[in-house]
Amino acid sequence: MLFDLHGKRRRVVQATYLTLAVLMGGGLVFLGIGSDASGGLLDAFGGGSDGSGDGNSIIEERVGKNEERVKANPEDEAARKQLARDYYSLAAALPVGQDGRVPAEGQDELQKADANYRAYLALEPEKPDAKLALTALQLYDPNALNKPPEAKEAAALRARVKNDPETYLALVKYATLAGDTRTADLATQKAVDLAPKKQRKAVKAAAEQAKAPAAPGGAGAVPTTPPP
User: Fold this and answer.
1) Which residue in 102, 105, 192 sits closest to 147, CA to CA?
2) Residue 144 pLDDT more than 90?
3) CATH fold label, 21-210
4) How far apart are CA 97 and CA 11, in angstroms?
């Protein structure tokens, strides 16, 4: 497994990620994980369509350069990571439908992001990139490629690296979406164990809410905010 619980996801925007956190006295709310990112949906790439053309041109140019790098060296870890981020960003920049999903014309970019993320993992990096795993969470989200098992593994990677209650709560959510109740239960206990003593009851309640069945046609109360 990617983690050891006993020792150890203004729209679908240019780049987004999920986490869960506990609001004391208010139950479960969904916020950014730790300090990895600031701002919200409206802030991503300048707040939407304004200036997005220039942003996409920069990304596309960078994609071209990194594609050349991986052709020359398929094990170029930095290029693989950036390609995964950039292909996802290009797909997420497209206007979404009423269902909130990345449109059909973005599927090729999503698949390329997936291929590069998997190629990065296959290199077995000594220090896995927890921030890249944020992108992977969104890549595998129901509104993108809709691959719950892969999203669960990305959440597990983040939890192993960051080892805090928030990332284990995120793992509870994604393990539940993947139908892995055992991992969801283990992640619940880990989140509680890592929480300050006075917050453990609230963390436990948050985890139980994260296990609640998703609303029909969606992944439940899962908002998005941009990764760094």
Assistant:
1) 102
2) yes
3) 1.25.40
4) 10
Residue range 99-126, pLDDT digits in tens: 899 999 999 999 999 999 999 999 999 9
**Contact status, residue 9 vs residue 137, Cβ threshold 8 Å:** yes
- Contacts of residues 124-131 at CB distance under 8 Å and 24 or more positions apart, as own/partner, are 125/77, 127/161, 128/2, 128/157, 128/160, 128/161, 129/81, 130/36, 130/157, 130/158, 130/161, 130/162, 131/36, 131/227, 131/228
Q: Measure the CA–CA gap between 84 and 161, rounded to whole angstroms.
A: 19
Over the stretch 7-50, which tens digit does the pLDDT of each residue have? 433 333 333 333 344 333 333 333 333 444 433 333 333 333 44
**pTM to 2 decimals?**
0.71
| Identity of the amino acid at 171 | L
Say if CB 120 and CB 88 are below 8 A apart.
no
pLDDT reported for residue 97: 82
Helix, strand, coil percentages (3-state) for the chain, rounded to 5, are: 55, 5, 40
- For residue 27, what is the enclosing H or E element? strand 27-29
